[in-house]
Amino acid sequence: MALLVRIVLAAIFVAAAAAKARRLRSSASALATYGVAEPLRVPATLLLITTEAALAVGVAAGIDGAAYVAGGLLAAFAVLLAVEILRGRSGQPCGCFGAGSRVGLAAILRNLGLAAAFVAAPSIPTAAPGRLGWVVIGLAFSFACIVVLAVAVLALAREVGVLRLRLRTESALDIAEEGPPLGSRVSIPAGPGHSAAGGLTLAIFASDGCRLCRALEPVVAAFRRDPLVAVAEFDEIRDADVWRALDIPGSPNAVALDGAGHVRAKGTFNSYGQLVGILATAERNAVEAVHA
Prior knowledge:
The chain is an alpha+beta fold. It has helices at 2-22, 24-29, 38-60, 64-86, 105-120, 131-167, 211-215, 217-224, 240-246, 272-291; strands at 200-206, 229-235, 253-257, 263-268. The longest helix has 37 residues, at 131-167. The N and C termini lie far apart (79 Å).
C-alpha cells in the first residue's frame, strides 16, 4: 500500500513538472502573478520543474525526507495562493499545473490535501504487497503511462495543426472597400508587446465566438515573439469602438501599420502564410511610400 501511494504521489509531481515544461514560456509568465521580475521567470520555472522532478524520484524511491520536503513545498504554495487571493488576484494564472492553472480556493485545497498526503506517506506501513497489491500497482502504472501517451498525442496533434496552418500559402483576402483605406493614417491603442518602435505594427482583430480565431491563436502567439513586429489584439466585443473606427468587416482580420501609423496592408487571414503575406506586403508598400 505504501509503495502504491508513493508512486501515485510521485506521478502527481511528474505531471505538474511535465505540464510546466510542455508550455514553458506560458507557465513562466504565470509567475507575474507573484511579482517575479520578467528576466527571472523562465529560470525560476526551470528550477521548480527540476525540484518537482527530483522530489518525485525521491518519493518513489521511498526517501522519507523527499516526502516531507514535498509536503512542505505544497503547504508553502497554499499559503502563497492564499496571500494572492487576499490581494485580489483570484482567477489569475498560478502556474501550479502549467499555464492553465488559476489562483483560487480550489487550488489552495488541492495543495493542502496533497501536502497532507506527502507528509503522511512515510507513516504508511511498508509491508510487501501481495499478489493483488502487485496487480493494483501494475494497473496504476499502466494507467499513468496511458495518461502520459494521451498528453503526448494531444501535443503532437497541436503541433501538426500549427504546421498545417503554416504550410498554407494563399494570399489573404483584401477587399478595398472594407477596413481602413491603404495609406490612411490611423491611431490604435497600444497593446501588450507593442514595442517595435519605428517598425511594423500588426493589429489582430478576433472574436471569442470565432472558432477559426481560436485555432489561429498559436499562429498569433508566434508573431508576438517576433522582436521586429509589435502585435496589438482587439476583441470584437471588448474593443468594439476600435472595430467601428477602422470599419473591420469580420474576424480574423489583420491590419499592418508602419511606424508613422499609416495602413500598409490589411485583409482577412486563416493561416500563418497569409499573415506573413500581410506583413510582407506592408514592408514592400512602406518602402515604396518612402521612395515615392
